[in-house]
Every structure is written in C-alpha cells, then in structure tokens.
Amino acid sequence: MSLELRLDNLFLPEHGIDRAHFDELARDRFPSVHEEIRRQRIEGRLGFYELPDGGDLVDSILQFAEGAGQAFENVVVLGIGGSALGAISLRSALLGPWWNEMSSEEREFYPKLYILDNIDPDTIGPFLRRLDLNSTLFNVVSKSGGTAETAAQFLIVRSMLEAELGDGYRRHLVFTTDSEHGVLRSIAREEGIAALPVPENVGGRFSVLSAVGLLPAALVGIDIAQLLAGARSMRERCDAQMLDGNPAALLASALYLADANLGARIHVMMPYSDRLRDVAFWFRQLWAESLGKGSGEGEPAVGPTPVAALGATDQHSQLQLYAQGPFDKLIVFLTVQQSEEDLEIPAAPGDHDALAYLPGHTLGELLRTEAEATQEALAHGHRPSLAIDFPKMGAHELGEFFMLCQIATVYAGALYGVNPLDQPGVELSKRLVREKLSGP
Amino acid sequence: MSLELRLDNLFLPEHGIDRAHFDELARDRFPSVHEEIRRQRIEGRLGFYELPDGGDLVDSILQFAEGAGQAFENVVVLGIGGSALGAISLRSALLGPWWNEMSSEEREFYPKLYILDNIDPDTIGPFLRRLDLNSTLFNVVSKSGGTAETAAQFLIVRSMLEAELGDGYRRHLVFTTDSEHGVLRSIAREEGIAALPVPENVGGRFSVLSAVGLLPAALVGIDIAQLLAGARSMRERCDAQMLDGNPAALLASALYLADANLGARIHVMMPYSDRLRDVAFWFRQLWAESLGKGSGEGEPAVGPTPVAALGATDQHSQLQLYAQGPFDKLIVFLTVQQSEEDLEIPAAPGDHDALAYLPGHTLGELLRTEAEATQEALAHGHRPSLAIDFPKMGAHELGEFFMLCQIATVYAGALYGVNPLDQPGVELSKRLVREKLSGP
C-alpha cells in the first residue's frame, strides 16, 4: 500500500483545469522537463535524489543515535528553516502531539525532542532555565555554519554548557553541517565536537532525508530505514516517463496549470490529520522558497503562495473563503485512511434529534467524512482540488511523501522556468542585519 | 503606552499604495463607512463592541474561575474555530509556550490548559487516556450547541466522565453556549450542568472577549480586567471620525486598497514573536471568514487570503517568495518592543570573523533588528508593508489588538461591500456530512 493521488475533482467545468491543457502539457512539455531533471540528476546537482540510498552515513547515524539516545533525556535541535522543519515534521507525524509530555516509560526511554527554530528570548530563556543540561544533547544544524539565528543560539548554549559541565560540555553537542566549510565545521575540528555532514549538493529545504532530519529522528527511535525505503519506492514511481504514471509529475503539473491557466496562484495544502499539520509547513517552505522568484533578467516575478491549512479545524476558519471567495486557489487535500486508534461516539443524554446522526460512528469516520464532504462541496461550486491519500501514517508513507514533494518541486521549477535550488532574495535582509549589528 | 501603527513602508513608488488613493478614500468613503458601522452598532448588530464593558458576566466568570481554577489540575476546552482560536491565542500570548510542561509550583497552582480543536482520534485518544479525569474540568464551547466536531468530543468525554465519576460528572463540565437555544443549552438544563452565555449578537469569530475566551483565560489566571481595559482603550481610539487618527480604519484601508488597487490579495500577518504566532491564526479566521464571499447576486466573489507567518523563522521559509515573487502581498509586521526577559550572546570559541557581529548583542536585539531589516529590504524592492508595534506583551496590549482587528474587520466588510457577520459558504459541506452519516 502506498500513497495515492486522486484527480477526480481537478478537471471541472468553468473553474477547473482543462483536461486538454493537461494532456497537451503531458505530451508536449513534460518529456523535456523529465529529461532535463534526469540530466541534472546525473550531473550531481540534485543530491536529494540519492539520499534514500543511505549507506555509511545511515550506519553512523544509527550507531551514534543508539548510544546517545539512551544516554540523554532530552534532545534539542538548534536550527531554522530547512534545518528545523524536517525534524519538526518527523516528530509531529510519527511521535504525535504529546511526546514531550509523556513519561520516560511511555516514551520507551527515548528522549524528548525539542526544536528551537526561532530566537525569541521569551521562548528560549524559560526553556533553558528549566532544562537539565546534564541530561541534554544539543544538535546544532546549519549547512553553511553561519546562520545568524542558529549561531546565536549555539553561542548561548555552548557558554551555559561550559559553565556547568566544564570540558565535558563537548559530549553534549553534535553538529550537522557542511563536511568541509563554515564556522561550525571549524569549531568542530578545533574543539573536538562530533559532527555529521550535509552533502554539498543538498540544500536546506531538500535535506530532510540527510543527517539533518535523520539524526533527530533516529535519536527518538523513528524507523529511518522505513523512511528511506518509502522515499526509494516513491523515487522509483517518479522515474516514469509518462506523466500519467508519475505522481510527482501529476502533482507539479496540476499546481502549475492551476497557476498558469486559471490564475490560481494560492496552493493550499490541507491535511485532515493533526500529524500532518507540520508536514504541510515543511511543504510550504519547499514550495515557496524554490518557486518564488524572478524568472530572469527583465522577466516578471513568479511563484505560487503555499498555504498550510488543517482539516477539519479550518472548515471553521478558512472554508468560507475557499468556498465563496475568489477563484485563486487550488487545494491539495491530504487524508489518512486508517488512524492508529479510533473512538466511538456514544449516544447523547436525553433525546436530541440534532445530534442523532453522530452516535455509532467514530471520530475517524467523522474526520474522513468531513474531508470527502468538503471536496464534494467545493467541486459542486466548480472549485478544483486534488487529494493525496495516505493508507496509514507511518515512516514509510512519510518517506514517500517527502520524496514526492521534492521531485514535484524540481519539476515545477522547470515548468515555471526558475532555478528551484537558490534563494537570492533573502540576502539583502541578512546583510542589513550584519550592518546594523556591526555598528558604525 | 499602547499599540502603534506605522505606515512608513506603505506609500512606496511603483508597487506601494498611492497616497492620493488613500487620501481620497479617507475623504470620500471613510466618513460613510464610519457612519454605517456606528449605525449598526447602535442597532445592536455588532455585539463585540460592547463586550469590553464586562459587567455581571465578568464577575460571574471570575467567581466561577476562582473556585474551579483551584479545584482542577487541568482545564480542557472542547471547541473549534472561533470557539477555540481565542483561548489558544490567550494561552500562547500570555502564558508562553511551556505552560503545560511546567510543574504546579511553576504555574502558581493554576491549571494546565488544553484546547482540543480537531477530531483526530490519534490526538484525542492518547490525550484522554493519559488524563486524570478526577482533576479535570471540560469547557465545552459552541454558540449554536450543534457544532458536529464539538458535539462528538462532548459525547465521548461525557460518557467517560459518567463511567468514571458517576453522577458527580456534572461538576467536571461547564458549557459556553447560546443563552436560550441549542442542544447544549437544553442538556445544561436537563442535566444541571453549569453554562455561561454567548450573547446572541456576537458571532464565533468575534467572541474572544465574551465568556468564550474569558472563562478559559480566567481559569489560568490571566488578568481579564486588563484585557478588557485594553479593548476599551482601543475602542475609544477607533471612535475617531478622521481616518488618520483611527487605527482600525488605517489597518482596514491599507489592506483593502492593497487588494483593490494593487491586486495584493494576500494579506500576511507576520509577528516577530513566538507568543503572537497563534494570535495571527486568530486573525486569519476573522479576516478570511468575514471577508471571503460573494458580494451579492451576480457580483464577483471577493476576499483577501490571510496568511499567518512567523519572524524570524519564516525568513528561512517564506521571505524568498515575499521578496522576489509576484507583487500580490501586503505584509503586516507585528513586533514586541520589550521582551519579558533577554539573553546576551557570548563570544565564539576561537577567532571566527563570520560570527563577530553577534557577541555583545542580545537575542531580543537580534530579533528586532531582523524585523527592521526585513521591512527595509522589502521596501527597497518596492514591496509595501505596515507594522503594528506592541510596547510589550501583556493582557492590556492583547486586548487592544483583539479590538483593533475586530473593528478593522467590520470596516473592511463595508469597504469590500460584504456582510462580515455571516458564513453561508460552509453550509453545504455540513449538510453533506449529516447526509453521509445518517445513511440511506
């Protein structure tokens, strides 16, 4: 059983995608896009493709995690953006929302996992004050090694560790950074701190299946072998040269055509699953930072705006807009067909007709029924959507999903005519911060 | 000290708002909008305006909370959409992110606060299994009383409570619902369960300053008197008939003109404060559900798409798109000028020029500098934004902000020509759910 894409609500009259345009893209454009991506992959520019093959790195991660996972009560990731979103997704999707509130026994003695992906002192101050440094491992994640926010966090943590633990502080740190360059790599060498590599040809937002995501996952007992196996199986499906059989090509083409032909420039990812909420935020970075940019000298700026929503919750927040607002959105529904557990809804006290349709059903049924009903209601108003069904929520399925979205992103880059691997637009803000803090 | 709106980056050449259009709106349209809203308020259609006056209800909330707040270790809100987002915002903004992980002593013996705003059995199952029902108060919140998700949660919880506590289960429930109508009100009467009212003229998304938000807040020791005082002071500022002196009018007009004149239909709210992240999600409901709708028979659908972002984190996720993508966004930056605490960034080990600009500064300075730098960088690319500065993060300031956004929403409804109080677009999906579950 693997992830399934459903296009039944995509080709609608009036505001849906025109099947003829889709077929035209499949016939005339996709073959060259597929070939271009294959070429870039062979040239070694798309390192994320090869990460699921694992190899030595995975063995060393597992080895490190086995020792450290048992030695520490807390794992704290210091990272931001692509250095944090993968670990956050893995935690939410596979450990659930209550992990850090569970007892050691309930966690089967795996550590708690915290990810600090901002620099708000009102978050970090109380957190560090309450933390037992003796039983905590800090994983500092920055490919370049120079990310301002992560560096600031690291300097604070390093100083606290050294003050409390003396020379032994090194054993409470592990870096994930470029294998050769950058400040973190230098400090690792100088201070004798453990460090795992980020491959040179893997950018932050494509790094979830590198040590960036795998180390935190392994430390809390997530089955990273299954995660990688899932990614490999999706990669194989996406080797298909025919668009119709290639899930990543279908996803990229649907979203691209919604934008290019319908003006639906807002791409909503709406899981009906709490566990996938943070995964939608992972996608939001991948999609926005890869595709939102000028397409070249003098050409217009392009880029869809990804929005993360959550079903059923956002039916009581965003659905009114999705159902009756402008025709500027394509919604990607994510559903999980089989929850880990379920709860039956009992009868109401007394005799209340208004609630009579609920008892006897389960919460899981209600959730899935709401997802179906919302897709149907939108289609009824000629509002297109597509759906990705997870047979269940596990490491294999999540690995499939990560790879699906990453391949879809490089296809979409080719369709939009932009380089999905760079992010030149964030440099000015970084330079201004350095200038302001360096003083006159 | 109160909230301050800054418009310095709004009137920019090329892609900014044209000062002449703004002045024209202030002169020609705003007086009638202001008058129309004043009329609706006098007619009693906009009940949220009067909530800050508190009165008897606030006394009874405080009384109830004083007893219950001490008797229970956990407060669990069952609600969705407008019945949850206010309480979530209040918790995040005023208690911080670690409240539920703190010990009783650290919480000064106030209860933990959980808000279950979805029906995912993989969230609710493990939560209820771990919960000590004996020390838990459930606040069931639904104005209509018939919200499917909340009703389903309630039936499950009620049945568990009765099984474990027998007749005493009633003391573990308090409803917040319509004062006369609906299933919850009937059950409250029949079963003798405590129930607080939601005024008839206050809709879910405008209810944060009613018992919907105030009861959970009071139960965990939030200063609701200050919250209401802040709301009153903002309401007074928004009585101003001149647009220039009326913060809600400035906010509504800037966002409306961005959409109407520039095609910037995506309205990003981007706090540089972890505590305000959920507040941006509260705004997201208010703005989307109030403004996203057909403006009348045969007229085109309108409605901006609100997006919640978080600084500095999303500089590493969304900024690339905001800085170089299409000119379809207006960003509202929220900053907090004085954090509760701060952390100084110490020197790096060894001699690393790349990090030399950080030591000696604090995390708070870095965060505020990044907010400034990002606004400047966007303005440099002719991308407009506006800013709302919180002098600090407290109940008074949050009350001001809630009222600011609520008044801005009804102004915006008038500018867009839609009824900001209804949500007809969600009905079809609800009906389909009932039909599917009722069976043939």
Short recap of the structure:
Chain A is built from 14 helices and twelve strands. With 440 residues, chain A is of the alpha/beta class. In chain A, the strands form three sheets. In chain A, strands 1-12-11-7-10 form a five-stranded mixed β-sheet, with helices on both faces. Chain A has a five-stranded parallel β-sheet with strand order 3-2-4-5-6, sandwiched between helices.
Topology summary:
The structure is a homodimer of 440-residue chains.
Chain A: E1 4-6, H1 19-42, H2 56-71, E2 74-78, H3 85-95, E3 112-116, H4 121-130, E4 136-141, H5 148-165, E5 173-178, H6 183-191, E6 194-198, H7 211-219, H8 224-237, H9 247-262, E7 266-272, H10 277-291, E8 293-294, E9 301-302, E10 305-308, H11 319-324, E11 329-336, H12 363-380, E12 385-390, H13 395-416, H14 427-438
Parallel strand pairs in A: 2-3, 2-4, 4-5, 5-6, 7-10, 7-11, 11-12
Antiparallel strand pairs in A: 1-12, 8-9
Helix pairs in contact in A: 1-9, 1-13, 2-7, 3-7, 3-10, 8-13, 9-13, 10-13
Describe this structure in words.
Two copies of one chain form a homodimer. Chain A has helices at 19-42, 56-71, 85-95, 121-130, 148-165, 183-191, 211-219, 224-237, 247-262, 277-291, 319-324, 363-380, 395-416, 427-438; strands at residues 4-6, 74-78, 112-116, 136-141, 173-178, 194-198, 266-272, 293-294, 301-302, 305-308, 329-336, 385-390. With 440 residues, chain A is an alpha/beta fold. Chain A folds into two domains: 4-41 and 228-425, Glucose-6-phosphate isomerase like protein, domain 1 (Rossmann fold, 3-Layer(aba) Sandwich); 48-222, Glucose-6-phosphate isomerase like protein, domain 1 (Rossmann fold). In chain A, strands 1-12-11-7-10 form a five-stranded mixed β-sheet, with helices on both faces. In chain A, strands 3-2-4-5-6 form a five-stranded parallel β-sheet, sandwiched between helices. In chain A, helix 12 (363-380) links the parallel strand 11 (329-336) and strand 12 (385-390). In chain A, helix 1 (19-42) packs across helix 9 (247-262) and helix 3 (85-95) runs antiparallel to helix 10. The first copy, chain A, is globular.
